[in-house]
C-alpha cells in the first residue's frame, strides 16, 4: 500500500485547523436574558424549571459527567465526594469545600473542563441564592480571566458568558447595592481589546446600573476609575456602558431613557475645566455617537429623545462653560455628510443623509438664551456648533433674520475678533451671508483699523477672509468671461478697510499678504466709482514679472494683479512689455496661473491673424501640453484659440475644395472640455484629427509645432485614468506612428516619456505644481498617476513593434534603466553596497532608523510599478524581427538571461520571449514546454519533459541541444526555487525541480550553483578566503542592511 502524499496530509491538517478556528456567535447579555425568558418573571420561571434532583448542582453535575469532559472533571468529582451531596442541606454544609475545589480546578493550566465547571458554578449560584454572596467576587475574577485573558477557545468563552449572565441576574439585588465595587471587578472587561467583551460588560453592568438610585454619583465614580488608567479601549467601554443604560432591544429605548441620559450628562457638565473634564466629555461624545447610529436603524417613535434632552439642558445651562460642553454633545446631532460620495469599492453614488432635528424652535430659543450670558465668549466648540447649526438647521428663508440677529449679537458681545472671523468663515456658504453677515466683517475691520491698526496678525486674517470670499463668489478663472464687475455685497460697510488696503497696497509686502489684498482689491469699489491704487498694481505687475523668483506665489500675485487691472481698465495692460510677459511664462514653465495671466494679456491685444506670432506663442505654451493637469492644457488651448487664421484648403478626389472653419486648437479644446463620463464624445473630437485628416485643421503657414501639439495632447490623455478612453487613443496614435515622419514622432514621444519619468523619480521641473497656491482652484497639487501613464504608453508600443524596432536608441536606455531600478529594489547587495566600498571611512548612518511598515509598503508598490513597466517594454522587444540589430544588444541579452532567473513569472515569460526572438532553431523545439514550465499551474506536469539524467534511457534533452537548453532551463528553475509558493503541492513541486537539477553534469551543476549563490558572490567575491568573509560579516550593520529574504529557497 502506497504511503499517503505528504502534501495531501498537510492540506488535511490545515483544513482541520481552519475548522477549529470557526468561532461561534457570542451572544450579548440581553440576548442571553432573552433566551432565558426576557423579563424578570419569565427568567425566574426559567431558573425554577422542575428537575428530578433536589438541587441544580446535582442535576448539572450528572449532566456534564454524561459527556466526555476529560480527567479534570472526574478529579473534581472525587475531591468533593459527590455521592455525599444529595440534598440541599448537604450542599449548604459543604458549600465552602465545593467552591474551593471548583476554583482550584477551573484555574488549572490547560484545563479541558472549563465549560463543565462554568455550568456547575452557575448551578451552585442558583441553589445557594443569597448565600452565594460570599463567593460572588471570587467567581467574577475567575470568569473575567477566562473572558479577557484566557485563550480564545469558543466553548470556554461561551460557557463563561452564560455563567456570568446567570451570576449577574441571580445576584442582581446584592450587586446593585455595591455598584462601585462591582465596577472595579468588571474593569478588565471594559478595557478589553476585544469589542464583543466590552459590549457584554456594558450590557451586564447597565442591567445593574438602572437599579441605582444615585446614577449621577455612580457615573462620576466610573469615569474617575477609568481616568486613573486612561486608554482608548477603556474609554470606549465606558461610552458603551452609558449608552447601553438607556437603550432597549430591537431598536427600542428604555422607558426612562430621557432621565437616564440627563443624569449621566449632568454628572460631568458642571465640573471645572481641566483634563479630567475633557476626558469625560470625550466619553460622552462617543456615547452620543453610539446613540445616533442606533437611532438611525430604529423605528421607535421617540428615537430622537436625546435631541430634546440635550436641547433642554442647553436652555437650562447656568454659564457659558456648561453651554459649551452641551454644544459639543449636540454637535454630532446636526452634522451632515457630503452631498454625494463614491462608496468605497463600489461604482455607485449614495445620496447624503439629511439632518433630522426634532426640536428646532427649542434649539433656537436655547441659542438665544446662551448668547445673552454675561460671561458669553467664543471658543472653538461654540464657534463650530453655532456655525453648523445656522448652516444645517436654520439655512432657509424664514430663519434668515435669526441668523443675522444671532451673528450681530455675538459680534456686539465678544471682543475676540479672531474667533468671530473663524465663525464667519464657517458661515460663508450661508444663503444670506453676503446680504446680512458681511456688514459684521466690515464692522470688525473698522474697529481694528481705528483702534489697533498695528495689529498685523488680525489684519492679515481679515484680508485673507476678504480674499477667500471674493475667490469663492467671483473666481479669478472666470475673469475673461465676466461681462461686468458687479458687486456682490454692500460696500458702504467696508469703506474703512478699502481705504486702508489702498494705502498699504505696496510691492514690499510678503507674497501671501499682497496676494490676498490684490484678490479683494477690485471688489471693494463700485462700478460707478473711480478705482484707486491702479498705479501701484501696475508697478507690482512689472516688478513680479521681471523677478527671477520661480515660486508659485510669484505667479499667482501676477495673475491676481492682472485680473484686477483687466476688470478695471484693461487698456493699462498694454503698457506692459510682452517680451517680459513671455519670459515670465518660460520662467514658470507654463504653470496654470502664469497661463491664465498670459491669456488676459492675449485677450487685451485682440484677435490676431499673424501666423508667425501664432507659431511663436505655440512654442511658448508647448510645455503646457506635457502637463498632467487637464486645466493647464485647456488654458493653453484657450490662448491659441484667440488666433483666427485661414485653414489650409484641401482638394478632394472629385476636385472639390474644402476649407475648415475650425482650427486644430478649437477641436482639441472641445475634446478636452468634454465630460469624461461621455468618453465617446471626446474620442469623436480627437478622431477629426486623424493623421492625414488633421491637415485640414492646421492654419496656412504654420510650422510643425501644431502637429507636435496634436500628438502631445493625444499622449497626455494617458494621464486620464479612464480605461475605455485608452483603446481609442491607441488607434489614433498608431496612425501617427505609421504615417508621421519617424524622427518627428519619436522626438515628441521621447520628450513626453522623459517628462513622465522625471515626475516618477521625483525630479522637479520647477513648475511650482508641487506647491499649493492660495487662489482657489488654481495651481492645485499634482496628484496625477504618472506611473500608470508610463505603463499605458509602453502598452501602446506593443501595437507598433515595427516602428519601435527602428528607434531602439530611444527605447533601449529606458529598458535598461528600469532593469537597474528593479535590481536596486530587489537585490540583497543594494543596501550594503556603500558599506563594503567605504570600509575605512567613518560611518555616517550608524544611528539610522529601521525601515518602518509604511516605507516597506512604498517599496513593494514601487517594485510592482517597475515590474509592470519593464514587462510592457519586454513584450515590445519580443516582437522585434532583428533582435541582434537592436541598440545595446549585448546588455539587453545579458538582462534577458538574468531576468529568466527571477521569481516573477511575468518577467520570466517576457524574457524567454525576448530570447526566442533571436530565432534559434534548437530553442524553438522546446519553446512550448519552456513556456509551460514558467506557468506555475503547469510546472509539475512539464518537469518530466526536461529529464536530464540518462539512468533509464529516457533523457529528454539530447546532447547536441544541452549547451543551448540547459542554461535557460536552469535559470527558469532557479526562479521557481526562490519563488517558494505557500500552497498545496509545494513540497512535491520542490522535489520535482531538484530531481531535474540532479540530472545535470558537473559543469552544468557548477553553472547552477554560481547562479543560485550569485547574491553571496556579489558580496564576498568568488575567491574570498574565510578570513576576508569573516571580516566583512563582522562589520557593524552588515546583517541589518542585507536583504536575507533573497536567499530563502
From TrEMBL:
Acidic residues: compositionally biased ranges: 836-856
Positions of region (Disordered): 836-860
Q: Where is the U3 small nucleolar RNA-associated protein 20 N-terminal domain?
A: 867-1025
Specify the domain of life of the species encoding this protein. Eukaryota
Tell me which GO cellular component terms the UniProt record holds.
90S preribosome; small-subunit processome
What protein is this chain from?
U3 small nucleolar RNA-associated protein 20 N-terminal domain-containing protein
Taxonomy, top ranks, is: Eukaryota, Metazoa, Ecdysozoa, Nematoda, Chromadorea
Amino acid at each position: 500500500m502506497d504511503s499517503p502524499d505528504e502534501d495531501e496530509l498537510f492540506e488535511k491538517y490545515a483544513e482541520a485547523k481552519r475548522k477549529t478556528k470557526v468561532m461561534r456567535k457570542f451572544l450579548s447579555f440581553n440576548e442571553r436574558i432573552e433566551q432565558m425568558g426576557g423579563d424578570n418573571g419569565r427568567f425566574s420561571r426559567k431558573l425554577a424549571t422542575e428537575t428530578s434532583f433536589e438541587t441544580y448542582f446535582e442535576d448539572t453535575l450528572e449532566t456534564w459527567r454524561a459527556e466526555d469532559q476529560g480527567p479534570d472533571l472526574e478529579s473534581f468529582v472525587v475531591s468533593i465526594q459527590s455521592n455525599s451531596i444529595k440534598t440541599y442541606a448537604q450542599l449548604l454544609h459543604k458549600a465552602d469545600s465545593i467552591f474551593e475545589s471548583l476554583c482550584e480546578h477551573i484555574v488549572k493550566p490547560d484545563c479541558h473542563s472549563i465549560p463543565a465547571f462554568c455550568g456547575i458554578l452557575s448551578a451552585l449560584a442558583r441553589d445557594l441564592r443569597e448565600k452565594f454572596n460570599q463567593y460572588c467576587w471570587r467567581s467574577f475574577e475567575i470568569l473575567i480571566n477566562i473572558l479577557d485573558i484566557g485563550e480564545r477557545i469558543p466553548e470556554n468563552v461561551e460557557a463563561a458568558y452564560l455563567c456570568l449572565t446567570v451570576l449577574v441576574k441571580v445576584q442582581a439585588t446584592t450587586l446593585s447595592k455595591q455598584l462601585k465595587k462591582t465596577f472595579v471587578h468588571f474593569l478588565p472587561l471594559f478595557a478589553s481589546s476585544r469589542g464583543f467583551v466590552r459590549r457584554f460588560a456594558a450590557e451586564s453592568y447597565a442591567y445593574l446600573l438602572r437599579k441605582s438610585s444615585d446614577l449621577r454619583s455612580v457615573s462620576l465614580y466610573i469615569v474617575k476609575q477609568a481616568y486613573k488608567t486612561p486608554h482608548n479601549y477603556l474609554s470606549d467601554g465606558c461610552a458603551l456602558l452609558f449608552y447601553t443604560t438607556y437603550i432597549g432591544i430591537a431598536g427600542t429605548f428604555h422607558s426612562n431613557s430621557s432621565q437616564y441620559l440627563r443624569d449621566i450628562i449632568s454628572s460631568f457638565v458642571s465640573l471645572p475645566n481641566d483634563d479630567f473634564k475633557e476626558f469625560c466629555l470625550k466619553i460622552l461624545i462617543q456615547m452620543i455617537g453610539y446613540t445616533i447610529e442606533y437611532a438611525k436603524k430604529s423605528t421607535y417613535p421617540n428615537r430622537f429623545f436625546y435631541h430634546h434632552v440635550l436641547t433642554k439642558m442647553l436652555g437650562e445651562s447656568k454659564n457659558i462653560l456648561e453651554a459649551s460642553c452641551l454644544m459639543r454633545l449636540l454637535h454630532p446631532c446636526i452634522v451632515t455628510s457630503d452631498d454625494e460620495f463614491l462608496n468605497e469599492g463600489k461604482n455607485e453614488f449614495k445620496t447624503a443623509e439629511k439632518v433630522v432635528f426634532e426640536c428646532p424652535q427649542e434649539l433656537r430659543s436655547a441659542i438665544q438664551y446662551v448668547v445673552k450670558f454675561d460671561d458669553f465668549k467664543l471658543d472653538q466648540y461654540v464657534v463650530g456648533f453655532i456655525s453648523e447649526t445656522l448652516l444645517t438647521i436654520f439655512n432657509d428663508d424664514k430663519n434668515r433674520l435669526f441668523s443675522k440677529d444671532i451673528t450681530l449679537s455675538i459680534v456686539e458681545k465678544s471682543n475676540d475678533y479672531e474667533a468671530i472671523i473663524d465663525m464667519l468663515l464657517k458661515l460663508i456658504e450661508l444663503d444670506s451671508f453676503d446680504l446680512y453677515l458681511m456688514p459684521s466683517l466690515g464692522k470688525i475691520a473698522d474697529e481694528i483699523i481705528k483702534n489697533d491698526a498695528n495689529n498685523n496678525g488680525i489684519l492679515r486674517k481679515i484680508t485673507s477672509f476678504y480674499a477667500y470670499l471674493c475667490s469663492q463668489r467671483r473666481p479669478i478663472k472666470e475673469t475673461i468671461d465676466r461681462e461686468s464687475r458687479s458687486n456682490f455685497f454692500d460696500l458702504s460697510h467696508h469703506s474703512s478697510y478699502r481705504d486702508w488696503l489702498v494705502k498699504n497696497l505696496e510691492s514690499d509686502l510678503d507674497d501671501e499678504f499682497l496676494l490676498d489684498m490684490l484678490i479683494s482689491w477690485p471688489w471693494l469699489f463700485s462700478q460707478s466709482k473711480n478705482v484707486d491704487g491702479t498705479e501701484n498694481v501696475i508697478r507690482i505687475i512689472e516688478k513680479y514679472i521681471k523677478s527671477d523668483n520661480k515660486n508659485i506665489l510669484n505667479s499667482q500675485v501676477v495673475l491676481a494683479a492682472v485680473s484686477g487691472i483687466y476688470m478695471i481698465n484693461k487698456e493699462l495692460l498694454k503698457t506692459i512689455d510682452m517680451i517680459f510677459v513671455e519670459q515670465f511664462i518660460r520662467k514658470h514653465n507654463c504653470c496654470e496661473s502664469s497661463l491664465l495671466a498670459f491669456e488676459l494679456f492675449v485677450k487685451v491685444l485682440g484677435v490676431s491673424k499673424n501666423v508667425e506670432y501664432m507659431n511663436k506663442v505655440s512654442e511658448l505654451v508647448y510645455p503646457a501640453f506635457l502637463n498632467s493637469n487637464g486645466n493647464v492644457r485647456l488654458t493653453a488651448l484657450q490662448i491659441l484659440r484667440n488666433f483666427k487664421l485661414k485653414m489650409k484648403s484641401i482638394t478632394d478626389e472629385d476636385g472639390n475644395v474644402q476649407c475648415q472653419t475650425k482650427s486644430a486648437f478649437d477641436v482639441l479644446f472641445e475634446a478636452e472640455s468634454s465630460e469624461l463620463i461621455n468618453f465617446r464624445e471626446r474620442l469623436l473630437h480627437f478622431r477629426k484629427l486623424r493623421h492625414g485628416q488633421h491637415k485640414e485643421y492646421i492654419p496656412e503657414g504654420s510650422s510643425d509645432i501644431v502637429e507636435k501639439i496634436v500628438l502631445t495632447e493625444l499622449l497626455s490623455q494617458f494621464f486620464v485614468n479612464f480605461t475605455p478612453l485608452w483603446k481609442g487613443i491607441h488607434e489614433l496614435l498608431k496612425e501617427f506612428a505609421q504615417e508621421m515622419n519617424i524622427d518627428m514622432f519619436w522626438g515628441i514621444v521621447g520628450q513626453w516619456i522623459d517628462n513622465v519619468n522625471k515626475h516618477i523619480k521625483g525630479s522637479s521641473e520647477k513648475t511650482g505644481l508641487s506647491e499649493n497656491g492660495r487662489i482657489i482652484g488654481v495651481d492645485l497639487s499634482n496628484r496625477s498617476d504618472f506611473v500608470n501613464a508610463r505603463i499605458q504608453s509602453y502598452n501602446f508600443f506593443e501595437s507598433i513593434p515595427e516602428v519601435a524596432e527602428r528607434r531602439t536608441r530611444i527605447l533601449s536606455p529606458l529598458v535598461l534603466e528600469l532593469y537597474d531600478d528593479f535590481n536596486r529594489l530587489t537585490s540583497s547587495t543594494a543596501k550594503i553596497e556603500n558599506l563594503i566600498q567605504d570600509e575605512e571611512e567613518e560611518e555616517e548612518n550608524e544611528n539610522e532608523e529601521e525601515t518602518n511598515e509604511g516605507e516597506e509598503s512604498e517599496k513593494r508598490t514601487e517594485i510592482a510599478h517597475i515590474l509592470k513597466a519593464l514587462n510592457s517594454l519586454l513584450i515590445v522587444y519580443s516582437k522585434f524581427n532583428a533582435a541582434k540589430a537592436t541598440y545595446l544588444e549585448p546588455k539587453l541579452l545579458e538582462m534577458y538571461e538574468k531576468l529568466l532567473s527571477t521569481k516573477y513569472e511575468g518577467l520570466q515569460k517576457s524574457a524567454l520571449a525576448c530570447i526566442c526572438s533571436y530565432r534559434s532553431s534548437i530553442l524553438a523545439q522546446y519553446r512550448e514546454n519552456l513556456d509551460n514550465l514558467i506557468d506555475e499551474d503547469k510546472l509539475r506536469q512539464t518537469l518530466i519533459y526536461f529529464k536530464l539524467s540518462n539512468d533509464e534511457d529516457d533523457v529528454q534533452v539530447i546532447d547536441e541541444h544541452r549547451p543551448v537548453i540547459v542554461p535557460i532551463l536552469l535559470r527558469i528553475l532557479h526562479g521557481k526555487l526562490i519563488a517558494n509558493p505557500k500552497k498545496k503541492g509545494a513540497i512535491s513541486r520542490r522535489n520535482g525541480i531538484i530531481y531535474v537539477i540532479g540530472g545535470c553534469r558537473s559543469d552544468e551543476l557548477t553553472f547552477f550553483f554560481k547562479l543560485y549563490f550569485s547574491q553571496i558572490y556579489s558580496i564576498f567575491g568568488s575567491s574570498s578566503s574565510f578570513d576576508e568573509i569573516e571580516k566583512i560579516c563582522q562589520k557593524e550593520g552588515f546583517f541589518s542592511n542585507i536583504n536575507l529574504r533573497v536567499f530563502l529557497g
